[in-house]
Amino acid sequence: MSTPADRLVQVQGHLSNTFSQGMLANQTAIVTGAGQGIGAETAVLFAKEGARVVVADLDASKAAETVKRITDAGGQAVAVAGDIMEQATIDRIINEAARLGGGKIHHIVNNAGFTWDGVIHKTTDKQWDMIMNLHTRAPFMLVRAAAPYFRVKDGESRSITNVSSTSGIHGNAGQANYATAKMGILGLTKTIAKEWGPAFGVRANTVAFGTVATRLTQEKEAGAFAEVGGERIALGIPKAQQKAAQGYQLVPLRRAGTPVEAAMSILMLASPLSSYVSGHCLEVTGGMGI
């Protein structure tokens, strides 16, 4: 019978071998919302660690840019453009990932999303439904469609990482729809961990970001927008609201996180470094809220 010391040596040997090839070598990953920001950096980091990556995004040109970053550096990636809230897009993502992975899919990162803010008494049904569908229904649909590739017993690593927000954990004025959806993804994550962990070893985790420097946190006056189904949605935080928040005084590190820093936390949860972490919500906030 092996001793704890023997098992530690075995684990260390596995990690050394893994690092020499890339922590996600010979694995296939789906990253949604990977055309820019956190999603793009996540796709690039996964590829650098040896993963074959499906870059899914609403914007075809931005998805292609991420794929080019990966392939120019010698990695493997393909783009799938389309609305993640539509079943046809879900099906194309799964089919392309299975093709790319030779019949296997190992990781899903449900990152796609944006905000459509409004105070409670002025939030429309359309605002509510779109944000709920985007941040809870779409991830569920993708995970459900991927079930045949995750509910398998081949001994290979599989993980699902869902992106949440501190708005979902603590609530946020002006974001009833977004906060509710981002809390909902926590419940989905824990359920996946409990259903698919025991027999299949699938790990499911959530990462909840605080302020990360993306189009969702820049000044709204900068003019960033998302366009879905003919609806043009302004993104960002009004300058006056940002000023009222007194910068980063509530963040011990006194700054916003970068998309790369955010992506590294996702990589950590998907990698062997988190092989015994499941059902967890990792808050990545620069210390805000402690």
Automatic annotation (TrEMBL):
The UniProt entry's GO biological process terms, in alphabetical order, are:
fatty acid biosynthetic process
One molecular function GO term is:
oxidoreductase activity, acting on the CH-OH group of donors, NAD or NADP as acceptor
Kindly give the Pfam families that the UniProt entry links to this protein: adh_short_C2
**Keyword set, alphabetical order:** NADP, Oxidoreductase
Q: Where is the Ketoreductase domain?
A: 27-199
Question: Per the similarity annotation, which family is this?
Answer: Belongs to the short-chain dehydrogenases/reductases (SDR) family.
What's the name of the protein?
Short-chain dehydrogenase
Q: Which species?
A: Sphaerosporella brunnea
